């Protein structure tokens, strides 16, 4: 079933994240642009190259040509396409890549501002599947950019930007994959009932029950098999396949119930491409 999102809210979230990334990178030295991040082989500059490359694709730019045959960790076509934008800018300075980021996000802001709610509700391919809306694609973009912003923050030792609106939007996107995470990635057994209690900048709970298939539910049919108490940003990093940042406190992650299943779940939360 297609997902319909509010145009004004989603465009606003994208713009705020792009502005936060710009502010974060504006005063970086070239050495800081080359700081390694938690994603394989990517520096701070590479994170920028990835974000601007996706926006260039959405603006209709052709894919760049680059040799990525030396990269052995790429598992699918989307990952390979992402890497082309990054590899094509390896020789550029961080300042040059930041200027490109500013130019394309300004162009995309103008394009998004010209769109109506009906445009956002129109059918569109998305990384989550073909039977979706353009608005869902843009919510995925808001999630992706928020995650990459925090990859950069973690690499530079900067604190999280814990504004509740982008954090809640990112969590809404993760919630669409919780059934897959619990049922497929973590392989929780039939009858399992999982309660995620998120703490920190936002307090939210997600409940997943494994019946014929795992699905997010409003309420569990019985007490949870596993309860996970975890800070919201640590939850986003874990589900996004990231290492925890230095300022994430493992002592704030608590398991209750079946601890063996709980550890299995925590070790298999990643679901992004």
Tag the structure with descriptive keywords.
Nonspecific Lipid-transfer Protein, Chain A, two-stranded antiparallel sheet, 11 helices, Four Helix Bundle (Hemerythrin (Met), subunit A), 7 strands, 5-stranded mixed beta sheet, 2 domains, single chain, globular, alpha+beta, 49% helix, 273 residues
Describe this structure in words.
This protein has helices at residues 7-25, 30-33, 44-58, 77-87, 94-113, 117-121, 134-156, 164-175, 178-185, 232-239, 259-266; strands spanning 123-126, 129-133, 193-199, 204-210, 214-217, 226-231, 254-257. Helix 1 packs antiparallel against helix 5 (94-113), helix 1 (7-25) packs parallel to helix 7 and helix 3 packs parallel to helix 5. It folds into two domains: 7-156, Up-down Bundle (Four Helix Bundle (Hemerythrin (Met), subunit A)); 172-266, 2-Layer Sandwich (Nonspecific Lipid-transfer Protein, Chain A), CATH 3.30.1050.10. Strands 5-4-3-6-7 form a five-stranded mixed β-sheet. It has a two-stranded antiparallel sheet with strand order 1-2. The protein has eleven helices and seven strands. 38% of the residues are buried. The model has no long low-confidence stretch (mean pLDDT 93). It is α+β, with helices and mostly antiparallel strands and 273 residues long.
